[in-house]
Amino acid sequence: MVYSVQIYFQKANTQRYLIERWAMLFVVALLLISFPNEGMAQRGSKIRTVIIDPGHGGKDPGAVGKRSNEKDIVLDVALRTGNYIKQYLPDVMVIYTRSKDEFVELHRRASIANQNNADVFISIHCNSARTASVNGAETFVMGDHRSQANLEVAKLENAAILYEENADDEYGGFDPNSTAAYIALSLYQSEYKNQSIQLAQKIQEQFTTRVGRKDRSVQQAGFLVLYRTTMPSVLVELGFISNPTEEAFLLSEEGQVYMASAIYRAFKEFKLEYERENALPPQLTAEQRAILAPGVPVEKTPATKTPVSKPKTHQVIYRVQFLTSPRELAATDQRLKNISELFFYEHNGLRKYTSGAFESQQAAQRHQAAMKQKGFKDAFVVAFYQDKRISNEEALKLMNP
């Protein structure tokens, strides 16, 4: 009898496991159907466009403190952040998902970023906790929640979809209060996770060293607003408005100026570092080339031709980078059709595709122009030595010891 009871419960547990497993797979399928790939913004050598996303708004107040609503604080900080970028980084276009107190669906926020081929997405929020003593700033990237606290933050922010009229259609019946839904969501990591973490770390460093906020570090969780973005993306939690002291700080003009300038400085540092790593080679005249590389004849190849040299691992090789992808592309991918000397390499956690292999920078620059005519407007020249990418400065030193 005891044995029969054990068998019964074993079967019941097995059935329960299978039901939960199938339920999770069903949620995954819904996510795949409901969250279509809107195309990946091509990362060039420059960061040109940033999306500033003030969370919540309109009928969605977000977290509620004793004296404030999250939607109002984050809008003020977001506008200040954007103004600093416009003022001090005039080469960057700033686009807000909202610039006033209005409700914007989560899926629309990501679409705004994707449709504008944004290079960075920064979503700004405030946090809340049941215990008033909890305080500090933290920055999230898309990923698997590793603590119950992170899961609760994701649930709080994703609850914004409850204000949307067509949430079931847009998110495939995603339940922001269901733990199983977040397990499924976490299976799809951000395509730019490494770069997102780099930006998040810089934001946290600014918050703690410049503004003196308590460091709650870089965290991971499943956020719908980050899930759909196709660029490095972070979600910033400025602090807890459930904490009276922190709420007062975030309500003050001084606090908002400090927090906005911290985000700006982190973005600037991220931009400069990215552009330094992906710097375009200098466009040298014949006279400059003669000075830098004496004895190397100026090539007479007509600009209409694209000479290709076979790569030699013992010398510097120049290639033209034209496409970036988070994963290996299929050989049948239309973007790789009719590409000469196709080559890819790993850099910054991404797979980067190049065309051509040249022994001189000038030949590569001519091929760069040809690739731009094919539609790859952000194509640029990169240097390699012994099959490893090096900076253009290193390449010049190797060619002119």
State the separation between the terminal residues, measured CA to CA.
86 Å
Work out the count of structural domains.
Answer: 3
Radius of gyration: 25 Å
CATH superfamily descriptor of the largest domain: Zn-dependent exopeptidases
Taken as a percent bin, the fraction of beta residues is 15-25%
Mean pLDDT: 76
Strand order of the largest sheet: 2-1-3-6-4-5
Describe the structure.
The protein has 401 residues and is α/β, with parallel strands linked by helices. It has 3 domains: 1-26; 35-275, Aminopeptidase, CATH 3.40.630; 286-399, Alpha-Beta Plaits (2-Layer Sandwich). The chain is built from 13 helices and 11 strands. It has a 6-stranded mixed sheet with strand order 2-1-3-6-4-5, sandwiched between helices. The chain has a 5-stranded antiparallel sheet with strand order 8-9-7-10-11. Mean pLDDT is 76; it is low at 1-14, 17-42 and 296-313.
Notable traits:
401 residues, Aminopeptidase, Alpha-Beta Plaits, six-stranded mixed β-sheet, five-stranded antiparallel β-sheet, disordered N terminus
Give the SSE layout.
Blueprint: H1 2-34, E1 49-54, H2 70-88, E2 93-96, H3 106-115, E3 120-127, E4 137-142, H4 148-158, H5 167-171, H6 179-185, H7 193-209, E5 215-221, H8 224-227, E6 233-240, H9 244-251, H10 253-277, H11 286-292, E7 316-325, E8 343-347, E9 350-358, H12 361-373, E10 380-385, E11 388-390, H13 392-399
Parallel strand pairs: 1-2, 1-3, 3-6, 4-5
Antiparallel strand pairs: 4-6, 7-9, 7-10, 8-9, 10-11
Task: Please sum up the structure shown.
By secondary structure, this protein is an alpha/beta fold. It has helices at 2-34, 70-88, 106-115, 148-158, 167-171, 179-185, 193-209, 224-227, 244-251, 253-277, 286-292, 361-373, 392-399; strands at 49-54, 93-96, 120-127, 137-142, 215-221, 233-240, 316-325, 343-347, 350-358, 380-385, 388-390. The chain is built from 13 helices and eleven strands.
